Amino acid sequence: MPHSQPIYREVAIHVVAWLCYINLQVLAVDQFGQQYTEHLLIALSELPAQLLFTYTTLYWLIPTYLLRLRYLYFSLLTLLVLAICGVLYWLGYYYLFLAPFDPGKLEQETPFDPSRLILSSFYMLCTSGLLIAFHMIRYGFRQQRLNQQLIIANQTVELKSLKDQINPHFLFNTLNNLYGLTSSNPEKAGEVVLRLSQLMQYMLYEGSQTRVPLREEIGYLQNYLALERIRYGQELHLAFHVSGDTAGVQVAPLLLLPFVENAFKHGLSRQLSEAWLQIQLTVNQNELIFKVENSKPVSTGQATSSGIGLPNVAKRLQLIYPDRHRLRQLDGVDSFLTTLTIELTPIDFTPTKGHENQVFTSRR
């Protein structure tokens, strides 16, 4: 019975709430007058009407009309239920308490006194309203928690989907290069196989993590650039510069490569000669700055297009680094510059510390 415990727990909470309410009501009315039993009997005689109004409102009126924004129906039916329960409230006091326990007062009261009925309805609205408000606050917190869980689950699925989208052009071109190198340059073909296997291993294993060391992400970029260097050869001038304290920094995996892929796909691949790419990654005390600038033919106009790369990385940045990142793009006449700045917080660091200053260049 997997659902029994939550039901029993909910019933127990309601029972405890009503017991606390009755005791507080009796103590407030009694005020140390030594008439606790009499006031308790009065509270119990009025309780059925309060239960009817409270649970009719909670489990019918609110979910059926209020939560569905049918305010007019909710208001009219609430007034109707309140009037009916107000009558029952006074009749409960009249017949369940006065008649059996204090018959001497029956001559002073009438069962359907309009003033008594209105006062009973108002009093019941105030007292039951507190319990309804308590329940709605609990409902609001519970819905907020469920919404947060759904958001986290959706973000996890979306992040996995975004990370799983690989640029097929890069893999196709690399395999074509590998096929040609197997006969012309077997040693270089072996390097391609090794670096491609390292790329795939990183994507399969480290890519499934929430955070990875920045150095591993840099190694992933270097393997990618090495494969592209083999593909372009002398046609590409490449510089990759890393500076700052990167040893203890954690980043989301597979986050930086789409900017480099975009440079090749929409800029360098369309340029027949003198193509160049400059990448700079800098880490200071509380920021990671990643710059990618590439040449482009003047006639191409806009260097970027709406492929899956940059739109996906923009979505990932919103999910992983909300209000902690800035992404700027500058489309020049003969170059395109992308600058990503990420604000680093304690969660993005590990205790390990160290400095490194690396330059990865190729002008072949």
UniProtKB/TrEMBL annotation:
Residues of the Signal transduction histidine kinase internal region domain: 158-236
Q: Does the keyword RNA-binding apply?
A: no
Position of the signal peptide:
none
Which Gene Ontology molecular-function terms are recorded? phosphorelay sensor kinase activity
- One Pfam assignment: His_kinase
Q: Where are the transmembrane segments?
A: 7-28, 40-62, 74-97, 117-137
Write the record's keywords in alphabetical order, separated by commas.
Membrane, Transmembrane, Transmembrane helix
Is Transmembrane one of the keywords UniProt gives this record? yes
Q: State any GO CC term.
A: membrane
Protein name, please? Signal transduction histidine kinase internal region domain-containing protein
